[in-house]
Design brief:
The radius of gyration is 28 Å and the shape is elongated. It has helices spanning 22-31, 53-73, 89-104, 123-136, 162-181, 192-216, and strands at 7-10, 16-20, 35-40, 47-51, 76-80, 108-114, 141-149, 153-160. By secondary structure, it is α/β, with parallel strands linked by helices. The protein is built from six helices and eight strands, in the order E-E-H-E-E-H-E-H-E-H-E-E-H-H.
Length: 220
């Protein structure tokens, strides 16, 4: 309910109607089959627009939805290279493939290398692992943050290179289309949600192993 009168009115086609009594503005909106919506209540006089309020609310909700989606798309994802610098090369490749999926979907990725026990005296081993990840993902990403140390772990941040990602997407789409045209089976990719769950399980297993190791009181 608009309590202040008069109000400045904007028409349904964004034309300026002018300052009129609120009752007159409401009557005009009704005659046009629209609603009178207060869009700048703090202005003096308040600014109102003649519009379809239902459509207006829908458009606002869609904008909010897109904003939330854009925010989610730019979330930082973390990939851990196991619990030690002695991670198997195959496991490193698994993590690289996971990071690639996130990058292709527009996410930044923090890749973390943990050091166990006296491994911290051989930092170059862990840094080599991080370098390998960055090198293999250079076709779609750029290093946004060089190795940063936090206790017994070092991390780099990779950001998707939009032009390169778009090129890779076109290539993958073409390969998929060619397979379908040739009657070959095309395996469905894991969703981002499934990928996140897989990584959470990996991290949970690492943490459980560390807790067990701490309980035994040993360091390798």
């Amino acid at each position: 309910m608009i309590k202040i009168t008069p109000v400045r009115v904007i028409g349904p086609d964004n034309e300026q109607i002018g300052v009129v009594p609120t009752s007159e503005a409401m009557q005009k909106a009704m005659e046009l089959g629209f609603d009178l919506v207060e869009i700048s209540p703090d202005a003096r006089p308040p600014v109102c627009k003649i519009m379809d309020y239902g459509k207006y609310k829908y458009e606002l909700s869609q904008k909010a939805k897109k904003t939330r989606a854009a925010s989610k798309a730019s979330e930082m994802k973390e990939i851990r290279l196991g619990r030690s610098v002695k991670i198997d090369p195959h496991d490193v490749q698994v993590r690289i493939d996971q990071a690639r999926r996130f990058l292709i979907h527009g996410h930044k990725v923090m890749v973390t290398q943990r050091f166990k026990g006296r491994e911290i005296t051989h930092r170059e081993l862990g840094l080599d692992n991080l370098k390998e990840v960055a090198t293999q993902l250079a076709d779609i990403a750029k290093v946004e943050q060089m190795p940063r140390w936090m206790g017994k772990q070092a991390s780099i941040i990779l950001a998707p290179d939009k032009a390169k990602v778009d090129a890779i997407k076109r290539k993958l789409d073409k390969e998929r289309a060619d397979k379908i045209a040739a009657g070959e089976k095309v395996e469905a990719e894991k969703s981002i949600e499934e990928l996140e769950k897989e990584i959470e399980q990996q991290i949970s297993l690492d943490d459980q192993h560390d807790d067990h190791h701490d309980t035994e009181g040993g360091e390798e």
